[in-house]
Amino acid sequence: MKRFVAGESRSQATLFPELLDDFVIEDNPVRAIEAFVDALDLKQLGFNGVDPHVTGRPAYHPAILLKIYLYGYLNRIQSSRRLEREAQRNVELMWLTERLAPDFKTIADFRKNNGKAIQATCRDFVMICRRLGLFSYSVMAIDGSKLKAVNNRDRNFTLAKMKRRAEEIDKSIERYLRQLDAMDQGAAAITEMRTTGLKEKTASLTEEVQQLQSIEIQRTESPDQQVSLTDPDARSMTARGTGIVGYNVQTAVDSQHHLIVAHEVTN
Length: 267
Hints:
Blueprint lengths: L28 H10 L3 H4 L16 H13 L5 H10 L1 H7 L6 H10 L1 H17 L8 E9 L7 E2 L1 H25 L4 H34 L5 E2 L6 E5 L2 E13 L5 E7 L1
Helix pairs in contact: 1-3, 1-5, 3-6, 4-5, 4-6, 8-9
């Protein structure tokens, strides 16, 4: 492969190994994350695990997990599994965590168990940006993003969904009843077996009607006439032309430095 830029041999040893710090330039955002987290009083902010247990397996320091979380936030990496993979292959994260690579369960539990502390950290970050004059306040851009909730669409009920499902059940019951009438005219042995199955289906649909009636009472009592069974706070909304059950995250961003000034999760 002459006349092309040639790479180094993978099996070639080097006398002076390159430092990991050499791969992260001075103005890389991970250096700002490092300085910011190291200056925080994590215990005062309410993070769990700042004081290690005397016995048992050593745990990751909350500062390491917070750096991973902030890196994912800045780079739009929301999945804990993706953050686990990035910590194993991403040079910036390797530098930030000193080559530590927590598993996705550890990262997810950290976010779940330190929600208020992370919120307080974000508030401190906004205050630091204000003191440094990084918010111009001349133009603020406000935008919203739809985030899908755990609640399945079939577990969310609106007026339109209730009417549509009730009509489907009524038609199914009518169809089963007609089939039962037709079975009365057929052979005795086959008819009895099929009739039993149809009766069970009819009973199941009747039970579902009763459940929908109970859900309808909850729905009418709800201020926005909507009920989500798995995640009560989630709401049905339109996102990119399709309907999802989730939340709307509203974010205000400074137009000059592109820093988030405030954010709010609504439904």
